[in-house]
Amino acid sequence: MKFLKSLSFSVLVLLCVAVTATFLQAQSAPRARLTAKYKVKSAPTGANAAAAPLASAAATPGLPLWSFHVHSSRDGNDYTGVMVGTNPFDEGSGNTRVATQIIPIIFKTHTVATSADAKGILTTTPGNNTFNPTVPDRACLGSRNNNPLRLFQQSPIFQPADFNYGGTDVGRTQTTDAFQRANFWRVIDREDYHVTLGPITNFNAFVLDVPAASGLALATTSLGPPAFCAPMAIVDGNLFDLFVNNTILPALAPRGVNHGTFPIFLLYNAVLSDGDPTNLNNCCILGYHGTGNSDPTQTYSPMDFDSTGLFGVSGLDTATASHEVGEWMDDPFGNNATPPWGHTGQVPGCQGNLEVGDPLSGTEAPRILMPNGFTYHLQELAFFSWFYSSRSVGLGGWFSDNGTFLTDAGPPCQ
């Protein structure tokens, strides 16, 4: 498995007013103290092969997909790929729903990191901790709205909310559908075009008892003052992905999890490492969207619901979910090729795939106050046209859903 993406989240301080605020939201905006990373685990056919997306689509007949063929004005080349949903360029209509499952993950760790040296190497000692998204967390979330799983279920990732981008009402819907509608605003039938997650099925949690050498709990004082609200788990990403593919997916296959559905694995205050978890240089992967290790190709996505604030305000609660679900929808197999782009968001060099979250990682979209009184954090996402064309088919002629990008990605990255 290749860990392909990294970023340092910037801290964006915004005034957030809610009728009922959680303990965390009532505090001043947290300062990013760790480097956050995202990744994509591409289909086995390869990330950049021109024929790979269509081959993957053929291997996954249950997932509703449409294929695009585009001539890029950025480099003069032709590109082909697949997205989830129906073709917005084909009369612009269609209402697609993808059956989605939420699977909480409980980590049990047996090592505690007590301090970090100047090179990011952690000092550890034996100790047991449990990271469970299904139980209340008063330390980080306060006395109300303190059940991470329930907050996740009630979020605009799955529940409808009103979305307005730049003064344009794009509808009352889920956040990723609102993005996709804005993404192709100039060509869709605005009355009928939707791509939503549903029905939503909730499964009982799976427990991963992490070997002492493969994961740890970062103590609240391990990074120096100030202490953060609760420990954070760091678990070897390869161990976790094997657990997903060898244990969870086979166990849930008889219960309807298959290559035509989208299973989401909910982590809470838990991130993944690319190798040795005692080295902070290998940390911290908040989420990824991936493909299974066997045919037919299963897509899935683990994602952290963070309340520690260690990654700044733009890493809180559903910011990671909005990043990963958007990327799954527009690049489900991780191999939709684009002209090279980079030097933006979490990409210091050049990248060549249709990962809509990466160019704006760390940039917030408007926050959403839901009926439960919790204000959710979301990430701004790049439009299809930003990757390929100088002429936007997106809302307002923009190239991202909150107007940060007003032109395409420019000449091919070098």
If you had to describe this structure to a student in words, what would you say it looks like?
This protein has 414 residues and is of the alpha/beta class. The protein is 15% helix and 33% strand. It has eight helices and 19 strands. It has helices at 23-26, 52-59, 138-141, 148-153, 175-183, 237-252, 319-330, 384-388; strands spanning 37-41, 65-71, 78-84, 95-116, 122-131, 161-165, 168-173, 194-202, 206-209, 215-218, 232-236, 262-268, 270-273, 283-291, 299-305, 337-344, 347-353, 364-369, 375-379. The strands form five sheets. A seven-stranded mixed β-barrel has the order 4-10-11-13-14-15-12. The radius of gyration is 20 Å and the shape is globular.
Structure keywords:
414 residues; alpha/beta; seven-stranded mixed barrel; two-stranded antiparallel sheet; 19 strands; 15% helix; globular; disordered N terminus
- The helix/strand class is alpha/beta
- The termini sit apart by 25 Å
Low-pLDDT runs = 1-27, 46-60
For the largest sheet, list the strands in their spatial order: 4-10-11-13-14-15-12
- What is the residue-mean pLDDT, rounded to a whole number? 90
Order of helices and strands: HEHEEEEHHEEHEEEEHEEEEHEEEEH
Q: What is the CA-based Rg, rounded?
A: 20 Å
Strand elements, count: 19
How many structural domains? 1
Overall shape: it is globular
Q: What amount of the residues lies in strands?
A: 25-35%
SS summary, helix count: 8
Largest sheet: 7 strands, mixed, barrel
Relative helix content: 10-25%
